[in-house]
Amino acid sequence: MRRTSFAFRSIPLILLAGFLVLPVLAVLASWLPWGQGNAQSGAILREMAATVLPGYIWTTLWLSMLVAVGAAVVGTGAAAVVTLFDFPGRRTFEWLLLLPLAMPAYVTAYAYTDFLQFSGPLQVGLRNTFGLEGRLLPEVRSLGGAVWVFIFSLYPYVYLLARTALGERAAHLMEAARLLGAPLPRRIRTVALPLARPAVAAGVALVLMETLADFGVSSYFGIQTFTTGIYKAWLSMDNRLAAAQLATILLVLVMLLLHMEHRAQKRMRFAAGGGRAGSAEAQPVRLRGARCGAAWAICLLPVVMGFVAPVLFMLRPLAADWSVLPWERFADWAWNSVRLGAITAGLAVAVALALAFAVRRQSDRITRGVVQLASVGYAVPGAVIVVGLLLPVGWLQAAVPQWGVGALVTATAFGIVWAYLVRFCAVALQSMQSGYARIPPSLDASARMLGAGSTRLLARVHWPLLKRSTAAAALLVFVDVMKELPATMVLRPFNSDTLAVVAYQLARDERLGEAALPSLALVAVGLVPVILLSRTLRSRN
Predict the structure, then answer these.
(1) What residues contact 278, with CB distance under 8 A and at least 6 apart?
(2) Which of 8, 16, 48, 220, CA to CA, is 20 to 30 A from 320?
(3) Which residues pair with 285 in a beta bridge?
(4) What Cα–Cα distance (Å) separates residue 40 from each residue in 47, 238, 242?
(5) For residue 469, what are the CA distances in angstroms to 351, 372, 439, 459?
């Protein structure tokens, strides 16, 4: 009877996880034989393999490799400087280095393009001042420009993890190496960097997942990556199966990166454990003179390139002429973004609370497996989720057209909210599980001894202690939804453009001055979780 009761309780969880993982399973199922449609997709893939697919592969590999090296160097260097050394302004740089997290990469791309392109103010001013002609700077819309944008937009992932690893134990071991007579360069090379290696690997994996999932930068710069290839196979060639089969290759790459990130996180337990870095014998090394200036340069460059310069570039057209900005429609775009973000945040928090409570109540293998399955979507690029979502909808629409499933998913907010939940439910779940980790299990035992059932335990004991975690989860999901571009661009209902979509469309039409308004609005929204994260890190220190 107990096993039967447990099986019935597991059915809702399994159905919920199936709802969230269905797009991923549909992408994998695209390789199954489906008759004539599969033959057509096979022909398209063979043609792409003979023409453009090698270019997609090489471009994606080069982009990923250069971004990984650049983000590792910038993020690790900044983390080492603010953790191992003391200089004027170090506390300020600790949170300033987080600011690029508020900048979507495609917004940074628009800002640099507007300022540095051939007709931009910098090249025009140089030509007028010095009497020069022609192009004076390299083309921004290129692979090198994309690498620059990704490095200074995504390095905070490496910075955060490396800073945590170095701050917990590196100072003690650096002091021990100093007492043994090791000079500063050797202490950094043989003690600090090996300790930070697992954290850097985990951060680089996150950077690469974001790079592979990007659509805005690669599409705007005209770079032929796997993500843009998926959209071409789907929209230009009108074959969803071919797009889904291309998406499986990208999905395999992302899963390998996710596995690498998990392994690196496990190694961080051994590389960054024990001790407090704030004791008197393990204080950061005081810098003066030229070394202090070098530390300032290492910390200031990422902040300027990743946040200050793009914001100033976008403020320039706003200050030049306010009359050309789309103020009348801005409220509609903002309302659509806020509405979708609020709906998704509420649903994601409810789903995450149900899954986290299930693990808390019955932490068996099945429940943990279901929760892990529901978290897979966060590692999947938005383009893959969209293709995987529309494949089963298309099959069901062809089988039973009278149900109108296609119209429900593509003409209402149901489809886009579904895609958001698949993509961002893991964000809310991680926050809820962190909140549950701070609740002692003895409270559950005491409540059960007093006769409280599951519903009363959740409402009277857990919920009052989870309010802060719930608010943090809702905020993170809300901001992620506001910035999401690929899924929103394809699945949004008619006449319901969001700030992200409008910014992309205006920039694509070379109306970069008008794109500044929605872009800056996205940056302002993204600053909220960055400020909260900075306060949390400072309180821990």
Answers:
(1) 541
(2) 220
(3) 85
(4) 11, 11, 8
(5) 14, 19, 12, 15
Residue 429 sits at φ, ψ, to 5 deg, of -65, -40
Rounded to 5°, the CA angle 221-123-108 comes to 35
Q: Which two tokens stand for residue 460?
A: 């009277």
Give the N- to C-terminal CA distance of the chain in Å, as an integer: 51
Tokens linked to 76 = 């690790």
Which tokens hold the place of 430? 């991680």
b (16+ CB within 10 A) / e for 257-284? bbebbeebeeebeebbeeeebeeeebeb
Q: What angle do CA 529, 533, 538 make, to 5 degrees?
A: 150
What pTM was estimated for this model as a whole? Answer: 0.86
| 31 and 242 Cβ atoms separated by less than 8 Å | no
Beta bridge pairs of residue 286: 86
DSSP class of residue 35 equals T
Close Cβ partners of 517 (under 8 Å, ≥ 6 residues apart)? 318, 325, 326, 327, 330
Q: How far apart are CA 426 and CA 411, in angstroms?
A: 26
Question: For residue 286, what are its two tokens?
Answer: 């005081």
Cα-Cα-Cα-Cα dihedral of 285, 287, 292, 298, to 10°? Answer: -10
Give me 217's structure tokens. 């930068």
Compute, in degrees rounded to 10, the torsion defined by CA atoms 520, 521, 526, 529: 130
Q: What angle do CA 104, 304, 74 make, to 5 degrees?
A: 80
Helices (H) and strands (E) in the chain, counts: 27, 2
CB atoms under 10 Å from CB of 178, counted, come to: 17
Longest dimension (CA), the chain: 88
Helix 512-540 vs helix 499-508: angle between axes, to the nearest 10 degrees?
130
φ, ψ at 511 (rounded to 5°): -100, 60
Tokens linked to 536:
């949390």
How far, in Å, CA of 370 to CA of 18, rounded?
9
Q: How far is CA 104 from CA 19, 99, 301, in A?
A: 28, 11, 18
Compute the residue count for the chain.
Answer: 541
Per-10-residue mean pLDDT for the chain, 541 residues long?
Answer: 54 82 84 63 78 87 94 93 88 92 92 89 89 86 94 93 76 75 78 80 86 88 84 72 79 77 62 46 75 93 95 84 72 91 93 88 76 77 83 82 81 90 88 84 84 83 87 89 88 86 88 86 89 74 60
Contact indicator for 96, 299 with CB cutoff of 8 Å: yes
Pull the structure tokens for residue 339.
């509405």
